[in-house]
């Protein structure tokens, strides 16, 4: 039987299965229909032969009882109208009873109930006869006879009729119970039969499923498993042929196909091995080609840009106008070509997966200020206004700083290039938060909006594709290669973000960049530089500096000295601790890898000593190096072409300056390109350095060993002895191994290069990775936190001093320029104070200054700032005070000082003051101090004890 079913075709197997299932369903359905019909008949019997009969007899009973009650009322009432009405109602009830009895008869009197029905009919007829007699007696006025008749014979007839009716009703109800029992029996029969057929159907279906599985599903599964193994690579796998139907034929064909694929794969495998070798060779040649192209293109560009910059700076003499113009053309064209080459190489690196992000945290203002400064000259040529969002706080963002700067430069240059004359470019940014599961993810959203020609909707897709450009007329007018935005998009995508554009023809474009963020830090707005004024100078705050080298110390000293700080230098950690305890500086700036005792130990001891615990410490370290050159162990890493500013900037960060040594710094320059050597020599010698030139690797090694240079600038790609070889050999030399190295090459550094140089570099010279502006801003914050340690308090009067006044005035000017709210400044100068000191002594003069300071301070609000401006002058800043109110304050102060007796050597004396006042922005915000000083001098010369307003640099009204 199994073989017979297995040899059937699939269509016949399916036909057999369906026929068996149909037969089973037909039998079960027939039995079910029969029993359902029987149940329906019983239900119909219950309704017609029982329910209706019972309801009819119940209605007869109700009518009969009602008729009986109305008959008694007919005897009782005496009113003819009521009697007539009751007689009619009794007749109606009699008619209804007759109709109901007739209906009962029409339904059919069940067998066994005939005698009871006949008795009911007879007794009812007898009762009606008595009822008729009673009504006649009642109508004739014989109420007593009627009552006697109804209570006698009438009661007997009524009770007999009612008992017979109830007996018949009870018999009908018994018949209903018998019918219900019959229905219950039929229901059980239906359930049992249905259950039997269901079980039988399940057994039959299981058998059919088993047979179908063995003959259809299982062979298909065998084929599927065989194909899956072939897909996984086992091409020798074959499917078993278990049936002679279509599935068996399919298995045979699958096996034949597998055999063909196996043969084809063996052939392709041999070809693939050959092509793989060719591709590996091609990939190697491509990498070499990119390195060579990078070197061969950037090297001459280095010379073009470098020499043209030297000519622009007139390093070798003046140029006439035409020469200057042509040099500018050469320089800008070379820079433009360099940008194109860099874009192509960057795209190549991204496509090859060789570009890596170096994520760091940095203030967004750093990139915005740099990019805006770079683009501003191009914008000014076309009279285009650059605007950027201003805020009281700016975020610190997480990104690859160099790549983010490149993104912003591309977007800004595009916005300027495709803008209209006298247009506008606006940079906006925001930090948004979006729910991400149970967390909130932060994003930097940066937009660049221009007022240019806009982009058509059908051209939007072209913007971010390599080498795709808009219509030729637009490109001819504005230029472009179609690489900038394509590279920008890839750089944004590398950060995990995305970029899009919104545009309307004739109204400009808005490019928006959205980059995921995790930082929640903010930086305050940079304080405006204090106004430079002449006059009395207080003692500068002292800052103790201990960098990671003498050069770093020297650089910090230059930065801080220009900002009026006294610098105390320490050479190592122990000296830092000693000087901190002795001199109690305002702040300490220190590195981590300092000699004798590292920065972490020093910081721990500083904070553990009560004498130095309150001194603010600023850590400056490049331990978190991210530049590739430092990862290689070099001092810096620059990519050709490097202009003068980049090179000298690198040297200045290392403080290799001629000011540090009496003898100029010796720099060994190694490059196989004569033009590069000439260019670097001109740049460095013009800055006062001594240059040692080496045209190749062998010469470089010899010069490094014999002449012991202070620094080496090394190219990696040189014929013969390469830069790698130079590094390898110098690191084996006992003295030359410590020479700091700047990698100066056009070669794209690979991971293999990095590993090779990294294993040979034993000492890493780190650079100071900070900016002057950041350092000064940090010091400014510390000044506000520790005014006494920062020497912002006058020791004589205990008021804030002139430096503090400059800071407060700068802040008020900034707030006024932003919001327009007024403030006033008073300069209070004691008249003839020099003569007062000559007549008394300086101690008395100091006491007089203290008394005058107390008078001024005691008469002002807490919100006002009183400072000793210098010598015999005091400066007052009245925030939110307009000119007329300030004039009243000045007059009151003048009167207070004049009325106050001053203690002198011979008793009591009187001092007077001259007061100049001004109210920015009404009177201008520039030259405030100069105008006030000039005015008080004029007032003193005129006799003093006066008040005058200042407008600009002169007195109001001339």
In terms of topology, how is this protein built?
Elements: H1 2-7, H2 10-76, H3 80-107, H4 114-139, H5 143-231, H6 246-312, H7 321-352, E1 359-363, H8 364-381, E2 385-388, E3 393-400, H9 401-417, E4 424-436, E5 439-450, H10 472-478, H11 484-494, E6 498-504, E7 508-517, E8 522-524, E9 542-546, H12 550-561, E10 566-569, H13 573-583, E11 587-590, H14 599-608, E12 617-619, H15 628-631, E13 636-639, H16 644-654, E14 666-670, H17 674-686, E15 690-694, H18 697-707, E16 711-714, H19 723-730, E17 741-745, H20 751-760, H21 772-785, H22 802-819, E18 823-830, H23 833-839, H24 842-858, E19 865-870, E20 873-879, H25 883-899, E21 901-904, E22 907-910, E23 913-918, H26 928-941, E24 947-951, E25 954-955
Parallel strand pairs: 2-4, 9-10, 9-11, 11-12, 13-17, 14-15, 14-16, 16-17, 23-24
Antiparallel strand pairs: 1-3, 3-8, 4-5, 5-7, 6-7, 18-20, 18-23, 19-20, 21-22, 24-25
């Amino acid at each position: 039987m199994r073989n017979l079913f297995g040899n059937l075709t699939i269509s016949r197997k399916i036909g057999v299965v369906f026929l068996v299932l149909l037969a089973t369903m037909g039998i079960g359905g027939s039995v079910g229909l029969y029993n359902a019909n029987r149940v329906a008949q019983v239900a119909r019997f219950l309704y017609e032969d029982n329910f209706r009969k019972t309801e009819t007899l119940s209605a007869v009973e109700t009518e009969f009882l009602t008729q009986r009650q109305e008959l008694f009322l007919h005897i009782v009432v005496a009113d003819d109208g009521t009697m007539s009405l009751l007689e009619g109602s009794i007749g109606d009830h009699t008619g209804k009873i007759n109709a109901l009895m007739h209906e009962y008869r029409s339904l059919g009197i069940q067998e066994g109930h005939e005698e009871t029905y006949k008795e009911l009919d007879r007794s009812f007829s007898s009762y009606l006869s008595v009822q008729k007699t009673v009504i006649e007696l009642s109508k004739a006025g014989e109420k007593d006879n009627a009552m006697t008749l109804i209570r006698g014979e009438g009661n007997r007839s009524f009770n007999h009729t009612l008992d017979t009716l109830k007996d018949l009703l009870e018999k009908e109800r018994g018949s209903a119970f018998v019918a219900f029992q019959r229905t219950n029996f039929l229901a059980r029969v239906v359930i049992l039969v249905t259950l039997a057929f269901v079980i039988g159907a399940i057994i039959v279906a299981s058998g059919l499923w088993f047979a179908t599985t063995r003959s259809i599903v299982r062979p298909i599964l065998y084929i599927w498993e065989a194909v899956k193994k072939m897909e996984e690579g086992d091409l020798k796998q074959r499917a078993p042929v278990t049936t002679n139907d279509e599935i068996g034929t399919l298995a045979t064909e699958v096996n034949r196909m597998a055999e063909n694929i196996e043969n084809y794969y063996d052939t392709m495998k041999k070809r693939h091995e050959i092509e793989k070798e060719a591709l590996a060779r091609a990939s190697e040649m491509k990498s070499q080609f990119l390195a060579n192209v990078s070197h061969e293109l950037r090297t001459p560009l280095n010379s073009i840009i470098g020499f043209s910059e030297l000519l622009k700076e007139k390093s070798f003499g003046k140029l006439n106008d035409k020469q200057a113009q042509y040099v500018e053309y050469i320089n800008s064209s070379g820079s433009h070509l360099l940008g194109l080459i860099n874009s192509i190489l960057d795209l190549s690196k991204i496509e090859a997966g060789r570009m890596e992000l170096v994520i760091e945290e940095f203030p967004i203002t750093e990139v915005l200020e740099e990019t805006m400064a770079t683009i501003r000259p191009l914008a000014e040529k076309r009279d285009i206004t650059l605007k950027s969002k201003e805020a009281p706080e700016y975020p610190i963002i997480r990104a690859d700083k160099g790549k983010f700067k490149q993104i912003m430069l591309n977007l800004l240059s595009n916005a300027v290039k495709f803008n209209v004359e006298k247009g506008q470019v606006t940079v906006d940014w925001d930090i948004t938060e979006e729910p991400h599961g149970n967390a909130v993810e932060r994003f930097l959203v940066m937009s660049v909006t221009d007022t240019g020609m806009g982009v058509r909707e059908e051209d939007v897709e072209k913007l971010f594709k390599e080498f795709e450009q808009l219509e030729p007329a637009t490109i001819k007018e504005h230029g472009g290669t179609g690489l900038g935005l394509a590279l920008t998009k890839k750089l944004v995508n590398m950060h995990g973000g995305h970029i899009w554009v919104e545009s309307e023809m004739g109204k400009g474009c808005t490019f928006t960049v959205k980059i995921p963020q995790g930082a929640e830090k903010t930086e305050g707005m940079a304080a405006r530089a204090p106004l430079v004024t002449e006059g009395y100078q207080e003692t500068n705050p002292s800052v103790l500096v201990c960098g990671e080298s003498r050069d770093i110390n020297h650089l910090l000293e230059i930065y801080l000295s220009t900002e009026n700080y006294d610098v105390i230098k320490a050479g190592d950690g122990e000296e830092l601790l000693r000087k901190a305890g002795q001199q109690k500086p305002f702040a300490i700036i220190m590195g981590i890898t300092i000699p004798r005792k590292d920065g972490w130990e020093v910081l721990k001891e500083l904070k553990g000593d009560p004498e130095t615990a309150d001194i603010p410490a600023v850590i400056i370290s490049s331990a978190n190096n991210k530049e590739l050159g430092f990862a290689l162990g070099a001092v810096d890493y620059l990519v050709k072409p490097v202009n003068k500013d980049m090179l000298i900037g690198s040297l200045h960060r290392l403080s290799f300056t001629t000011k540090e040594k009496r003898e100029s710094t010796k720099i060994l320059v190694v490059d196989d390109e004569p033009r590069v050597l000439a260019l670097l020599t001109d740049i460095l010698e013009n800055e006062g350095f001594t240059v040692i030139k080496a045209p190749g690797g062998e010469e470089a090694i010899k010069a490094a060993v014999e002449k012991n240079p202070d620094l080496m600038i090394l190219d990696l790609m040189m014929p013969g002895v390469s830069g790698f070889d130079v590094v390898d050999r110098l690191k084996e030399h006992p003295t030359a191994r410590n020479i700091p190295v700047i990698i100066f090459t056009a070669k794209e550094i690979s991971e293999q290069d990095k590993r090779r140089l990294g294993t040979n570099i034993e000492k890493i010279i780190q650079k100071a990775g900070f900016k002057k502006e950041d350092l000064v801003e940090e010091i400014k914050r510390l000044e506000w936190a520790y005014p006494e340690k920062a020497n912002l308090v006058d020791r004589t009067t205990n008021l804030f001093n002139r430096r503090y006044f400059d800071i407060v005035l700068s802040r008020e000017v900034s707030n006024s320029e932003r919001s327009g709210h007024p403030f006033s400044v008073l300069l209070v100068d004691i008249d003839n104070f020099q003569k007062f000191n000559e007549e008394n002594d300086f101690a008395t003069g100091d006491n007089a200054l203290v008394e005058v300071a107390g008078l001024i301070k005691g008469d002002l609000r807490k919100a006002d700032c009183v400072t000793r401006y210098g010598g015999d002058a005091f400066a007052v800043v009245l925030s939110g005070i307009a000119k007329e109110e300030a004039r009243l304050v000045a007059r009151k102060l003048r009167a207070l000082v004049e009325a106050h007796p001053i203690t002198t050597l011979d008793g009591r004396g009187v001092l007077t003051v001259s007061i100049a006042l001004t109210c920015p922005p009404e009177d201008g915000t520039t030259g405030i101090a100069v105008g006030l000083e000039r005015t008080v001098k004029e007032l003193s010369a005129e006799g003093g004890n006066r008040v005058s307003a200042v407008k600009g640099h002169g007195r109001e009204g001339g």
